[in-house]
Amino acid sequence: MALCVLSNVVVAWDNIGEEGTWGDFKATKNRTVRCRRKSSPCFMVPFKCPKSCPATCLMNCNTCTPQCNCVGPGTVCQDPKFVGGDGITFYFHGKRDSDFCLVTDPSLHINAHFIGKPHPSKKRDFTWVQSIAIFLPSSDNGFHNLYLGAKKTGSWDDSVDRLELSHNSHPISLPTGEHATWQSPNGLFAVKRTQNTNSVTVESKGKFEISATVVPITTEESRVHRYNITKDDCFAHLDLSFKFFDLSERVDGVLGRTYQKNYVSKVNLTNPMPVVGGERLFATSSIFATDCVVSMFNKRNALGLGESKKVKELARVECMSGPAGTGVLCQR
Fold first, then answer.
1. How far apart are alpha carbons 1 and 172 in whole angstroms?
2. How far apart, in whole angstroms, are the C-alpha atoms of residue 188 and residue 194?
3. Which of 34, 90, 55, 16 is nearest to 215 (CA)?
4. Is the pLDDT of residue 24 over 60?
5. Helical (H) or strand (E) element with 223
6. What pTM was computed for the model?
7. CA–CA distance, 324 with 244 (Å, rounded to integer)
8. What is the C-alpha to C-alpha distance for residues 140 and 100, in angstroms, rounded to an integer?
9. By the 8 A CB rule, do 172 and 202 touch?
10. What is the pLDDT of residue 251?
11. Short-list 37, 35, 78, 71, CA closest to 53
12. DSSP 3-state of 300
């Protein structure tokens, strides 16, 4: 049985603006990573990936250290593994073929669409984030949105682009090739490729920066976790990293609530796979709906003055946890 196998993978992560923390990462044969943010003291200095993740890692441009993917705050990957804004790791499985709000705030809302397969021995599904939709308010009390998703694919070839992009329901044509860019007519969204195919950053100046890479379930992952992935569908999905610059104190959502000033995580840190529930609170009627129970989007009058600044300061705190979320270290 032929399964999806990553071949000739070269992935890069590059910041569009100067506000973000993460540089780029490359899974090359010699496992070299570089920061591409010009203001960083380690701009374009080569580093080796850690031994625990020799194939792929991220370059932290603030600390000038390479770090394994899905370890830094604001990351979402795998069978959804989250690292919160507080640096604590948790899992949110949701439900296959369903949509959930990851972040909801008066001036920003982000949904995710989950795909998956039934778990052979448990009630829950195996799930992965297949796409996200990002909403920003418009002047007429409506919103603008940007959709970013992974196309369904069988046999995986990293040289073939599997990204799907749209803006306000209109498809985005983004040429292949590293550094290819697109900007929305109103200037709210900017998209930039960080490798020839399958990796981009999405930015809204002063609000957020999102790095996204389309990845398949590999043969080894399927064997280890018993996903039973077949040659018909390798469940291409997104590995994501979020940086926020203007959140309010009332931000909510699966990931968003971990950026609240007084948020206290309820996960069991002694559990190697701490799971967070709350599907009812975070479910939306579609990926393009902002109707989750905890939705704060466009509810500007509910906020007090000065809240955004306080959470902006929290968003700039550097936190790291171990892969199992068993400890947290934070510094400004």
1. 35
2. 19
3. 55
4. no
5. helix 219-225
6. 0.79
7. 24
8. 25
9. no
10. 97
11. 71
12. helix
